[in-house]
Amino acid sequence: MDPTLKADILVTAHVSFMLFVLLGQVLVLAGWALGWQWVRNPWFRSIHLAAILYVTVQAALAIECPLTTWERDLRGGYLRDVEDASAIGRFCNGVLYYSVPTHIFAVIYGTFALLVLLTWVFVPPRFRRGQAHLAAPGEGIPAHSSISR
To answer: In sequence order, which residues have a C-beta less than 8 Å from that of residue 3 and are 6 or more positions away?
Structure first.
C-alpha cells in the first residue's frame, strides 16, 4: 500500500479519536440535560476518560503523539508536506496540526480533562452493584401470576 494512502488513513483515524473525545463530552453534557441514560454507560465513560487523560499526560510530558510520529514517518519526515495527500488527508491534517507552543496544548488538554473529570462527579457513570439476585424456585412470583407454584 502506498505510504501516502497509509498516512491519509492514519490522520483520518487520528481526527476520529479527537472527535470521539470532543463530541463524547458534548454528548455527556447534552445527555445530562436531556435525561439520556446511555451517557452514564461505564464502558463509554471509562474509555472517554482514559482517552483524554492519555492525551493530557503526553502533552504535560511533552511527548509527541505516536499517531503524529507515525504519520510524519509515512510522509517522509514532514507533516506539512501533504500535496500528494487525498482531499480528506489534507483536510484532516489541517484540522489537527497548528503552530502553537507545546505548553499551550498541555493547558488546553488539561483544562478539558478537568471538565471530563467534573462530569464524573456531576453526571457519574452507573456501575452495577454486585450480581443480580437469583431467585429460588417459587420465590418472587407474584400471587396473581398465572404461573403455578
So the answer is: 74, 75, 76
